Amino acid sequence: MRTTIKDVAKKANVSTATVSLVVHGHNRISPETKNRVEKAIKALNYYPSKSARNLVSRKTGNIGFILTEDHFLKTEPFYTQIFLGTEFEARNQEYYILLTTIPTNFSKDDDLPRFILERSIDGLIIAGKVPDLFIEKIEPFNLPIVMVDYYTDHNAQSAVLIDNIGGAQQATEYLLSLGHKNIAFIGGDLEHPSISDRYHGFKMALEKNKKALNENLIVLTENATSREDGYHAAKFLHQSQTDFSAVFACNDAMAIGAMQYFKSTGIRIPQDLSIIGFDNIEGDLYQDPPLSTMSVPKIEMGQEALQQMVQILSNKKKVLKKILIPVELIVRQSTKQK
């Protein structure tokens, strides 16, 4: 039989109201009484129900997690790993995570997620790029928001971001250190801050090492950054007949797509061409050859986002904070000395 608040009150010889005040951390309880109640709670193994705590705090205990439909795919698990990070940390913080997706091209005719409309969340974590229209549409709900791997100045929010510029510089300089002089860059959706920053970091590395930027080796025309987009970008690059010995893809999905195209033409990797990606998704290890990449700590990003949200909710005021998460070079078999 489950222990109730009445059982704790009886054992500690106090009222149920006093037990409730101790549970919720009110400071008007004397140290002696607080100690007596806490001993009773421990002795009886009492756990206050979440619903009871929420009634007192006027909070739902829920945090929403939103990403677009194209980011919630088995073949592109980057953002689902971030979601897992928030879920793991939510357990420690005694919150529940409610996950949903919105249309990639969210329009004025699309409904907002039910947990927003029903006001059943205390805050919202948004992972990846979402349309500005969506941000505008949720403004009236006045929800605390933490963004992950995306940031917009519109209704500025807290954010957990990747060191995309530094990571791209490191990836490019690694290829240069292998003796590659003609390095191509493939990307898509340059309006996404992460992609534009990676391209910027690529150019910075070339400039730092006094290497001229060859516009014929830059492919930024793809609308997205999927494997299919990587395949198309590699095909365009190959058909340009410009000489290159290495490719830096803006993410692993595009890198894998590019590898598929080049292999289909008889180009050997890494014997004829080195390829490096960015993100370190699980599928990298199962490529032939395994993909060199920049590793992004996705689980940790999710945990950091949840911690930021709890801080905002605890302070009961808007906290604008940007956290930059470092990345790490992972060398595998898709790159070699020229």
Q: Can you walk me through this structure?
A:
- By secondary structure, the chain is α/β, with parallel strands linked by helices.
- The protein has three domains: 5-57, 434 Repressor (Amino-terminal Domain); 62-162 and 299-326, 3-Layer(aba) Sandwich (Rossmann fold), CATH 3.40.50.2300; 164-295, 3-Layer(aba) Sandwich (Rossmann fold).
- The chain contains twelve helices and twelve strands.
- It has helices at residues 5-12, 16-23, 31-44, 50-57, 78-93, 114-117, 132-138, 164-177, 193-208, 227-239, 252-264, 298-315; strands at residues 62-68, 96-102, 123-127, 145-148, 158-162, 183-188, 218-222, 246-249, 274-276, 293-295, 322-325, 328-330.
- The protein has a six-stranded parallel beta sheet, with helices on one face. The protein has a four-stranded parallel beta sheet with strand order 7-6-8-9, with helices on both faces. It has a two-stranded antiparallel ribbon with strand order 10-12.
- It starts with a helix and ends in an 8-residue tail after the last strand.
Instruction: Tell me the structural class.
Output: alpha/beta
Unreliable segments (pLDDT under 50, ≥5 consecutive)?
A: none
Strands side by side in the biggest sheet:
2-1-3-4-5-11
Assign an overall shape.
elongated
Specify the helix fraction band: 40-55%
Mean pLDDT: 89
Summed up, the helix count is 12
**Looking at this structure, what is the CATH superfamily of the largest domain?**
Response regulator
Q: Biggest β-sheet: count, sense, barrel? A: 6 strands, parallel
Give the number of domains. 3
